[in-house]
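A further point concerns the way the authors explain their paired sequence and structure data. Each protein is reduced to its one-letter sequence and a matching series of backbone shape codes. An entry of this sort, consisting of the sequence and the corresponding backbone structure tokens, reads as follows:
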Amino acid sequence: MNVSGHRYKQNRFQQLRGFCYAAALGSISKAAKRMCLSQPSVSQQIHGLEIELDATLLVRRGSRMELTPDGELLFELAKPLIEELEHLDQEFRLRRSEVDEGHIEVAAGLSTIMYFLPQHVQAFRRMHPRIEVRLQNVTGIVGAAPIFHAFM
């Protein structure tokens, strides 16, 4: 196995991504098109990966290519990782918007807490039963100042 100190020049994610696309699509050219890169760039990424792993991953036969046993093993291991990383932003936004436990603090004056907020807090708690709602009674500019400054 080639454990090189020069890996910092490579982007392992891009290398694996190029390799997985090529393996899945059966073509380095198709992988390059999907990645919006040139075919030589993707070939170079795969070649770099082969050097770093000290393994032949693809056998090229003209315009066709086949995975070697090592290539099949790497594809099996890397494909789920690449799929998850490619959907990371979307999954992060989805999970972030689906917070289902914790607490929220609301600062308001006594009248607002007693007459305006109850119906809204009740509706919120029905929708998010595992999120604790904490109400803080603050009055005037002095009471609101610490909270106001906390958000600035």
Summary: Helices lie at 12-25, 28-35, 39-53, 69-86, 88-97, 110-127, 140-150. Confidence is low (pLDDT under 50) at residues 1-5, 144-152.
